[in-house]
Write a structure and sequence with these properties.
- With 254 residues, the protein is α+β, with helices and mostly antiparallel strands.
- It contains eight helices and eleven strands.
- Helix 3 packs antiparallel against helix 4 and helix 5 crosses helix 8.
């Protein structure tokens, strides 16, 4: 039989059990799997399948993967910009960039929660995420103050036209909110379909995020899997926000 050199590897995920994922004040029923490796292929395959890693690296020897039966998402065109956030933006005290300091954002998220026994973002996970960023499959949004200090941001994985949020942090009030607003605005212009917030939080709900059924989420994930965020549109978005080209590091080549 002739070998098919274009055949892609098939990933077999462990059988899942119905478990409970916890976020904020909500208990969210989830499909849960345990096992596998925390590496580039496993993480990308998980996100493309609707799962995400979430476990304490101190308490669990094997990674755990969750798929909430209701998904908390933000549609880019539905982002709510409050009056106070409009004032913050207009004051110009904070500057936003895209994909300029991915490791710095991930490390900021890691350090903020590292002493928590339930912390999931280990140094190994950070290194894997940075490798994925180098492949063009992960994106960061950075927030800087007037002294060019990194004071907040967020990062996540890209599955086609869907941004799968991983974590965010703020060292000054509303920095992560500003990052989310700019991400949503950029996604809207670039025809990105969805921001996956995974689990509910009051912070994200106040910005317009809402639950959708898992079936709708998977349908959107499949429909938008083969697109890519258009780099020309991303550049145009930066210009429309009054930011110069140095504030954006392209993910893809035109």
């Amino acid at each position: 039989m002739e070998e098919n050199i274009d055949k892609k590897p098939v990933y077999v995920m462990p059988p899942f059990n119905v478990g409970v994922g916890f976020a904020g004040d909500d208990l969210c029923p989830s499909m849960e799997m345990m096992g596998g490796a925390v590496d580039v292929d496993s993480i990308l395959h998980a996100y493309d399948s609707g799962f995400f890693p979430w476990y304490s690296f101190r308490q669990s020897e094997a990674p755990r993967w969750f798929f909430p039966l209701k998904r908390f998402v933000l549609f880019p065109d539905e982002v709510h910009v409050s009056h106070s956030m409009r004032n913050l933006i207009n004051r110009g005290e904070l500057r936003v960039t895209f994909n300029k300091n991915f490791r710095g954002v991930v490390d900021g998220c890691r350090k903020l929660r590292y002493d928590d026994e339930r912390a999931w973002l280990s140094r190994h996970m950070m290194d894997v995420c940075c490798e994925i960023n180098g492949m063009g499959r992960a994106l960061s949004v950075e927030v800087w103050n007037r002294d060019d200090e990194l004071v907040g941001g967020l990062y996540g994985m890209l599955s086609g036209m869907v941004f799968c949020g991983e974590s965010m942090f703020s060292l000054v009030p509303s920095a992560s909110k500003l990052a989310m607003i700019r991400l949503a605005q950029m996604m809207s212009v670039a025809e990105g379909s969805l921001i996956d917030c995974q689990m509910r939080s009051p912070h994200l709900e106040s910005m317009g995020a809402r639950y959708i059924e898992a079936s709708e989420f998977i349908s959107m994930l499949r429909t938008n899997r083969y697109g890519t965020l258009n780099p020309t549109e991303l550049f145009n978005m930066m210009m429309s926000l009054g930011l110069d080209h140095d504030d954006y590091t392209p993910l893809f080549n035109d």
